[in-house]
Amino acid sequence: MPNYLNGRFILTIFIMLCLISVVFYISITNGSFDISVSNVIRTILRINPNEDYDLVIFDFRLPRIVIAGLVGLGFGMAGAVIQGVTRNGLADPGILGINAGAGAAIVAFMFFFQGNMNGTDLLSIMMQPIFGLVGGLLAAAIIFLFAWKNGKLDPQRLILTGIAIGSGFGAFSLYLSLKMKASDFEMATVWISGTIYNANWYYSLSMLPWLIIFIPIIYKKAYSLDLLQLEETSLKSLGMAVEREKSWLLISAVAIVSACVSVSGSIGFVGLMAPHIARRLIGLKHRYILPVSGLLGVLLVMASDFVAKTVFAPAELPVGIVISLIGVPYFLYLLVKTKA
After folding, report:
1. What is this structure's pTM?
2. Staple 81 to which of 68, 182, 236, 253, CB 3.0 to 4.6 Å?
3. Is 43 within 8 Å of 61 (Cβ atoms)?
């Protein structure tokens, strides 16, 4: 059985990487300005560089593809952690209110400072993701404060608190956005819906430290996630520090989600769908679920972003809306299946 699982896992990873490569190829060569594969390779390898190709590939397409991949990876793995800790297959990073907290901070930034931060220096570009990150972490701190009871982190209390806090931050975002000028309101609405149209290399770099630090921590604790599916009494008899493990896992997931939302807006359903599909593909062991969930998230966000920017070109949909068109029916399917 272990050899069978390992072979199935390797095959699944290989197929995922092939599909991601196909989406990468389509995304970088197609759009309002089509580029052949040979010209893409020449541009990247700096063979007879062309200014037009440099602009399209390095300034527009590659940063967007990279951020879509990083955001998908983060949401996919964080969703697997949150579902594992709460033992709730319908849990999603957005349900904890992290997305709403980061979104409220970004809307506040747009309302108070957007007009004063029009420069092209590093600080001006990074202020928006910094605000989003702070907002997400603040929401998480409030949620943890209310979810902690009698020295324990109650999973059900965590979800209910997250829904309540998320609704509060959502109402705050709506209030501020309604007081904005029409142009700023449109920008805020698009961002809250989930978008990566303003991707740049600085945003990619702002996410990397969080992913590099916390993804290895999560993967190292994959066995703990397996054990957390057991009853509390069984875990205590095994000598596991349950609350400490839950806290580390959730803090890591929250940090990753906050970093993703800070550059992409509130993209939902990735953290819901990716772990479910991963469990169907390779079983219940989290050392397999986590990487497959991450790659499924990469594939989903990259493909959805390509659809969002091309289907109605030159107009562009927020990527969050495209994913929701897939995610809402899938969520209803899971809900019906759970009741059955």
Report:
1. 0.90
2. 253
3. no
